[in-house]
Amino acid sequence: MGKPKHRTFNAERFLDKFQGYEPILRSFVELWNGHLELDSASLDVPLFKEFLVSGDGYSKDDLLESLYMAYDLCTERGHEDIVAACQECNYSPEGNGELPVECLSLKVRTENEEAFNLAYDRYTLWRAERFTIFRGKTAAAIADVDTASGVFQSKLAEIFKNHKNSDRVLVRYYQEGAYTNFIIYHEKRVKAELIFKGTTASPKVSPTILRPAQQDFISYNNETGQIEIEAAVEKEETALRKAFAECCLKDEDFFDSPGSADRLNLARIAEEDFDMPVDEDHSVILAEIHFNLPQAPFPSFIVRSRNVMETLEKTYLRKRLGGGTIRRAVFKIMFPDDLRGKRIELSGTNKIKFKRATHAEDVFRYLKNWGIVVD
C-alpha cells in the first residue's frame, strides 16, 4: 500500500470547531514560525481560513499536510485511535476529556508527534482493504515484542537492500487484545521528478530525487496463530511473512506448513445446505460469483445480480456449482449505519478484500459461521 489518500478536507467544518480554542490553532502554526506569511500571535479562525485560501510561505505545503492528517483522525474510529495512542505514550492532552476531536487531534500533533504518529498508524491499518491470511503451526505468543520488532526491522533492511538497493525501513507496532499489529514503512524504487518549490510570488522548479515510502501491514493473533498481511507486491509479501516468522516466532517456516494458506472454503457456497444467517438488523446478499465448470471446453462464468443465489437457482446453475471451481465471490452485508452495504471480496484460498474500518469483527464472525473462513 502506498501513501493513504486523505479524507476530503472540509475547512469550514473543521476550523469552526476552534472557536474558543484559538490557542491550539496558534500553537500548531508556531511549528512553522518564520516559514509562513502568517502571524501566529494574532491568529484567529477567520484569519487562518483566509490564509488557507490565499496565504503563502515556504512551509505552507508542510502545514497543509499536517492539517490534512489531523483531519483524517476526526472520526469516531480516529478519536478512539488518538485516545489509545495517548494512553500508550503516557501523555494526557486534555484534562477533562471535553475537547472536540478536531481540537484534540491538532493539539496532539502539536505537542506529541510520537503519539500522533502512533494514532495515525492505527488509522491507516484499519483503512487497509486487501489482505492475505495464513494460519501458523500453533497459537504462539511473541516473547518480547519490542526486541522482536527491532530484529524484524533489521532483517527487512537487509532483504530490501538486496532486493531494491534500499535499506530504509521503519517498523512500528501496537497491541490490541490478542492482536499485535505492525506497520512497515520501506522505500519504493527511487525516481526523479521536477518539483515546484518556493512561494507563489517566487516559484522555482528543481529536479528532485523522490524516495517515496510504501506502507505494508501485518496483524498477528497470538490466540489463533493467524497472520493477516497487506503488501503491495506479492514477492514482498512472501519476504514479510518469512522475516516476521523468523524474527518474531523463531521459525522461518511457521506459516508455510501444508494447508497454512487454505483459509477460505469457497466450495461451501456450492453445498445444498449453504445459508447466510445474520443478526436481526443486518441483511446480506451474494452479489457476484466467478466459477469454472470442468466439462470441455472448460467454460467460465461470472454472475452478478442483486441476489446471485436466486439467479443461480433460476438459471439452473446452482446444481452445477458442486462440480466446478469457485474462483471468486463477493458478498454485500447491510448494516444499520451502512445501508448501501459493505462489499467483501474473497478469492483463491486466502485473499480477502473489504474496508475494515467498521464492522470487521461482524464480517469475520459471519464468514466463519457460514463456513467460508476456515476456523
Protein architecture, described:
- This protein has 375 residues and is an alpha+beta fold.
- The protein has three domains: 11-127, no CATH class; 130-249, TATA-Binding Protein (2-Layer Sandwich), CATH 3.30.310; 266-369, no CATH class.
- The protein is built from eleven helices and twelve strands.
- Strands 2-3-6-7-1-12-11-10-8-9 form a ten-stranded antiparallel sheet, sandwiched between helices. The chain has a two-stranded antiparallel sheet with strand order 4-5.
- The mean pLDDT is 88.
Layout of SSEs?
Blueprint: H1 11-16, H2 22-30, H3 45-54, H4 60-72, H5 76-88, H6 101-111, H7 113-127, E1 130-135, H8 145-164, E2 169-176, E3 179-187, E4 191-198, E5 203-210, E6 213-221, E7 226-230, H9 234-249, E8 283-292, E9 300-304, H10 308-314, E10 325-335, E11 338-347, E12 351-353, H11 360-369
Antiparallel strand pairs: 1-7, 1-12, 2-3, 3-6, 4-5, 6-7, 8-9, 8-10, 10-11, 11-12
